[in-house]
């Protein structure tokens, strides 16, 4: 069951992707 890595991937993408994307964009 991939239910433990799913929420962690969403948080990592939202924390690193959302903050880095908004600052670069």
Automatic annotation (TrEMBL):
User: What keywords are annotated for this sequence in UniProt?
Assistant: Mitochondrion, Ribonucleoprotein, Ribosomal protein
Recorded GO MF terms: structural constituent of ribosome
InterPro entries linked: Ribosomal_bL34 (IPR000271)
The keyword Ribosomal protein is annotated on this UniProt entry:
yes
Q: Tell me, what is an example of a GO biological process annotation in this record?
A: translation
> Which Gene Ontology cellular component terms are annotated?
ribonucleoprotein complex; ribosome
Q: Which residue windows are coiled coil?
A: none
Spans annotated as Disordered = 1-25
Would I find Mitochondrion among this entry's keywords? Answer: yes
Return the Pfam families for the record.
Ribosomal_L34 (PF00468)
Q: Which family does it belong to?
A: Belongs to the bacterial ribosomal protein bL34 family.
Question: What is the official name of this protein in its record?
Answer: Ribosomal protein L34
């Amino acid at each position: 069951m991939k239910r433990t890595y799913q929420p962690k991937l969403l948080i990592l993408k939202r924390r690193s992707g959302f903050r880095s994307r908004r600052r670069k964009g």
